[in-house]
Amino acid sequence: MIGKLILVRHTESTYNAKGLWAGITDVELSDKGRSDARKIGAVLADLKFDRIYLSPLKRTRQTLDEMLKTYGETTAEVRETAAINERDYGDYAGLDKWQMRQKVGEETFQNIRRAWDYPVPNGETLRDTYERAVPWYREIVVPKLLSGQTILLVAHGNSNRALRKYLESISDDDIKNVEMDLTTIHIYTIGEDGLAISDEARQIETEISHLY
Fold first, then answer.
1. Does the annotation count 86 as an active-site position?
2. Is the pLDDT of residue 2 over 80?
3. Residue 19, SS3 per DSSP
4. Which of 10, 105, 200, 207 could join 63 in a cystine, given CB atoms 3.0 to 4.6 angstroms apart?
5. 124: domain CATH number?
6. Considering only CA atoms, which of 73, 174, 72, 188 is closest in space to residue 126?
């Protein structure tokens, strides 16, 4: 029996709440983020995790810590890996997203946020993120899934989008339309090739900030 892969995005950070690009800036969860993470834990309480992987940024660790308050105890091994770190937003880190949209226009703004290979000064593209996240997934995670383990990844909007591009065979052009929001958990059944067979998406109920 092949295991399941669960993708969780960290919940609202203080930068999310303010509409700022965080990237690899190591920001905390907001109070709302902590509350929402506890809701995720409750939504996933029927699943047994064998392994949990996090990025090194504390907002993923805080998300997991809050999840476990409602999920309950787990014997899963927890490991950090930079392979699923957030995309580095370079010179844009800390800037107000919506002021940037007014400055550069909607098309350029959406390219910065969502396009496959649109350059960011001194930062990473989504393609760069994919090129570190996907090889790690194929080497480390897929063998564990094929052995029947259930794997939880608590990561970021762009590292999860990069993984979804691979898992769902999304084209370079179509990935710009794929969002990894703060309310949806993706629970994939994985085939022998490491790609997704199905996705049982679950959602939590929360108010989405207009600054997200």
1. yes
2. yes
3. coil
4. 10
5. 3.40.50.1240
6. 174
